[in-house]
């Protein structure tokens, strides 16, 4: 049974989410603020659902601290007025976000998609072979059977979604992928208008990490069309 950590200070909200997830046969643990969430998080969780605005420690800083140790997917919950906070949440390592109020069907769809992709990574990392399979170009090396990227043998720390985007683009260099294609292939769910910012922020973060590591963003924008990998 997959275990989900729900970090939310509003009892009405977290009680509703807990009931909904338990009906879908998930095990749910509640934390009412970021401090409590950091005390409860461990490797056993398959997903974190976290509000942005909370007392003691907000969701942004909580996510930042979680990412120092854990790769578990993080789904942010936010109010419509917190648009900048949502983008910051993605920049510090969040995987996706939902705007309150949201439908039960939308929440379950995102939960299933995020956990499904996380299982793929767990499986890939658990089944490493002695001979790693990889894609390499000019010192940039992506291991296709595990979540790892290196430049000149130095590891580049990427989130799960950043790794998936880079893997998709490196497997098909010079092919142009639209934002819609990237979202549906990496997030494994239907594209919506709000998903555009999600993809753009992840690509921005990925480019910054690649520039810092190897001096080249590697991901090029084809205006009006999409993105492609070139190095």
Automatic annotation (TrEMBL):
Keyword Disulfide bond: no
DNA-binding region in chain numbering: 132-231
Record's keyword annotation contains Glycosyltransferase: no
Pfam assignment, any one: Trans_reg_C
Any one Gene Ontology molecular-function term assigned to this protein's record: transcription cis-regulatory region binding
Modified residues (4-aspartylphosphate): 51
Keyword annotations from UniProtKB, A to Z: DNA-binding, Phosphoprotein, Transcription, Transcription regulation, Two-component regulatory system
Domain Response regulatory: 3-115
Residue intervals of the OmpR/PhoB-type domain: 132-231
SUPFAM superfamilies for the chain: CheY-like (SSF52172)
Ranges in coiled-coil conformation: none
Gene3D superfamilies membership: 3.40.50.2300, 6.10.250.690, Winged helix-like DNA-binding domain superfamily/Winged helix DNA-binding domain (1.10.10.10)
Protein name: Stage 0 sporulation protein A homolog
Organism: Agathobacter rectalis
């Amino acid at each position: 049974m997959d275990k989900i950590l729900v970090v939310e200070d509003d009892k009405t909200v977290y009680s509703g989410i807990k009931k909904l997830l338990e009906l879908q046969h998930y095990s749910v643990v509640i934390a009412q603020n970021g401090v409590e969430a950091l005390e409860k998080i461990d490797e056993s969780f398959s997903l974190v659902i976290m509000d942005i605005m909370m007392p003691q420690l907000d969701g942004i800083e909580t996510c930042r601290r979680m990412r120092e140790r854990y790769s578990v997917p993080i789904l942010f919950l936010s109010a419509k007025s917190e648009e900048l906070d949502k983008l910051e949440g993605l920049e510090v390592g969040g995987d996706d976000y939902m705007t309150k109020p949201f439908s039960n069907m939308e929440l379950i769809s995102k939960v299933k998609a995020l956990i499904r992709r996380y299982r793929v990574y767990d499986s890939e990392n658990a089944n490493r072979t002695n001979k790693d399979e990889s894609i390499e170009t000019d010192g940039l090396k992506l291991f296709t059977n595990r979540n790892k990227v290196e430049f000149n043998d130095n590891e580049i720390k990427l989130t799960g979604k950043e790794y998936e985007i880079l893997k998709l683009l490196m497997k098909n260099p010079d092919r142009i992928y639209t934002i819609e294609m990237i979202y549906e292939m990496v997030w494994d769910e239907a594209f919506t208008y709000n998903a555009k910012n999600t993809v753009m922020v992840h690509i921005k973060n990925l480019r910054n990490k690649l520039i810092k590591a190897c001096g080249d963003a590697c991901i090029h924008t084809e205006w009006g069309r999409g993105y492609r990998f070139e190095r």
